Amino acid sequence: MDEAVFFDTMREGLWTAVTMAFPILSVALIVGITIGLFQALTSIQEMTLTFVPKLLGIVVVFWMSMSFMSETLVSFFTSRIVPLVAGI
């Protein structure tokens, strides 16, 4: 395998990971900022107040975007990894 092919495959794999993780990470960021603002405005310092809504938001978004993530990962493997392993 040539170095250029290896680095191109790694770059594309990292980009695939970023696009798959973006919905979950963006919801965690938005919920975290919202709960942080709520805690700062009301002076409530409860640790579970930040953890539980973030976890629920992540689970809901993960459930909603599972098909997108599966299709993205399968298309990456069938278009890039399988031909490299098969030597095509």
- Model regions low in confidence, pLDDT < 50 over at least 5 residues: none
In whole angstroms, how far apart are the ends? 11 Å
The value of Rg in angstroms is 19 Å
Average predicted confidence as pLDDT: 92
Beta-strand share of residues: under 5%
Task: Tell me roughly what share of residues is in helical segments.
Answer: over 70%
What is the N-to-C succession of helices and strands?
HHH
Extended strand count: 0
* Assembly classification: single chain
Sequence-ordered SSE layout with sheet pairings:
Blueprint: H1 3-42, H2 48-64, H3 66-86
Helix pairs in contact: 1-2, 1-3
Q: Would you give an account of this structure?
A:
- Helix content is 89%, strand content 0%.
- It has 88 residues and is mainly alpha-helical.
- The termini are close together.
Please supply descriptive tags for the structure shown above.
mainly alpha, elongated, 3 helices
Condensed summary:
The chain contains 3 helices and no strands.
